[in-house]
Amino acid sequence: MLSVQDLSIRFRTGEGHVHAVNNVSFDIAAGQKLALVGESGSGKSQIALSILGLLANNAETSGRIDFNGADLLSIPLRQLNKIRAKEIGIIFQDPMTSLNPYMTVERQLGEVLELHEGLRGSAARARVLEVMDAVQIPDAKNRLKSYPHEFSGGMRQRIVIAMALLLRPKLILADEPTTALDVTVQAQIMRLLDDIQQEYKTSILLITHDLGVVAGFCDETLVLYGGRVMERAATKDIFALPTHPYTRGLMRAVPNIHEPHAKLTAIPGQPPNQTQPLTACPFAARCQDAVMDCHSSLPDLTQSAPMRACLRPLEELT
Amino acid sequence: MLSYTLRRLMAVIPTILILIVICFFLMRLAPGGPFTSERPLPPAVMKNVLERYGLDEPLYVQLWTYVKNIIIAFDFGPSFSQKDRSVNDLIAQGFPVTLTYGFFSAVFVLVMGIPLGMIAALRHNSFWDYVMTGLAIFSQIFPNFVLAPLMVLLFTLALGLLPGGGWNGGQWQYVIMPAVALGTSYMASVARLTRGSLLEVLNAPYIRTARAKGLSERTILIRHAMKPTLLPVISYMAPVFVYMITGSVFIDIFFSTGGIGQNFIDAAYTRDYSVILGLAILYSVLTFVLTLIVDLVYAWIDPKVRSGLK
Ligand SMILES: Nc1ncnc2c1ncn2[C@@H]1O[C@H](COP(=O)(O)OP(=O)(O)OP(=O)(O)O)[C@@H](O)[C@H]1O
Ligand SMILES: [Mg+2]
After folding, report:
1. How confident is the model over A302-313, as pLDDT tens digits?
2. How far is B297 from chain A (nearest CA, A)?
3. Which positions in chain B touch A147 (Cβ < 8 Å)?
């Protein structure tokens, strides 16, 4: 349904270019739940934004994002506007700033229905209430005329989710839908997304830096580092046997119920410098398995399982 | 909202009273008085004059009489320098003139400044953006006391299109140059403010959310970006309008509009206590009213402020 091919995103800045995403390819089938994981700055949000043409003005893209036959990177805005919200919904990372502080919640949700389905007045209100109930916003009827600042962070996150669900899009891009929330609410929201996905058969691209969130939710996981795919595998395989040194490092930083006393270790070193085009594996500098060649060649993602972008054979990894 | 407005209005009264007291004493601290001049009056005449205006009484009695007359009769007293004119007369005559072109000047500032700023922001680094930058620089080089003579040179002397001064009951030909000369530099500031504000708003995450909904750029601009863009402009306009009214002295003199600015200058030269006090009160009431209006408009636009007002 969605096929991202050789996507690169770079930003023009005062100090040259920032190569945020480098030749990323993946696809999502109808009804699939794919996770995009990676540490902060690895390019997850920019990938999601590029799918809907929402990148900042200083962004340059190359590659193709195929959605039901159209290339989202090159179709005219007019056509893209028919796909936005209607076919592909997005849940933004920061619910505190992504709602308009000067408009009531009803108006912000209602305008989506008005635009795409011509619904107004009581018909629109009924639909708005229906999704607000679906995301379990208590007392929704009396809160329609409230402004974003009158809701707690968790409630705002639900409103942002409700907005993405309004038109039951075929694909939802969920960018850290739970990072702003405490753990109990986090679990609730994830269950909610799961229910909705089951009910509407939506595809979901779940973006997170938290492997714990992915574990119970996504069929497949794509591991990103320095704007490049390091590994792609079924989520259960990633947990059972990560095949890339970076993924292994990530796993060591996730608490494990089977070994509650195991030591948690963060990956030493800093995120990569992205001001130069990639010529070598971006993780090499922090990789404990790196050999000489790792610093000079850029392995591609293998096309059959195990799908990994690493010079070192799986058996030789520590 | 209503009770808030009333409360604000009630607060004006004590503030004005305090202001009267301060102005009253400040003026007396300044050397000289309304009747000192190069050639001193004979002591007998002086005594008569002082008695006539109650200036021989102790200060606190003078203050009390002044305040009492305002409260009871809304009477700001006689002018000390202009024979047989009361402060009420002077204000009633001059203030409407200044207020009229001041109002049109403010309209000019907003009607030109806001769209210009928005176009400059939307066509970032384009022709219009440069026009605006040029205008901003232009208005810095040509403040109103340079701009006014230039305009007269062009529109009156060279082209013969507009009268070079006078008021003539406020016909538009007479209003236009004072209003434009007074407003141009503020217009440039409003344009710059609007430009910066819109550029910032368009980068806000909630505008990205609006785009993600599939709304057209035009709808986004009008429905989502307009209000927050105008907020800083609105708060800027309250003091500016007061500056425009109080700072119109030059315009009043240059265009001989008969506006209140002329009275202000005269009164300052002649130590005309009652006129100065009267104008100080007028200006402060104006400031209060405008600030209140701006706060109300602000609250109307910004729900966060609104819920804070209850
Ligand atoms: N407008 C921009 N100009 C320059 N660089 C940018 C711009 N937007 C993003 N970047 C850079 O792109 C890189 C990837 O950013 P992105 O937002 O995708 O990270 P992320 O993986 O979502 O991280 P997080 O988990 O913190 O949200 C970062 O290094 C960021 O600094
Ligand atoms: Mg992000």
Report:
1. 988 889 998 888
2. 13
3. 303-304, 307
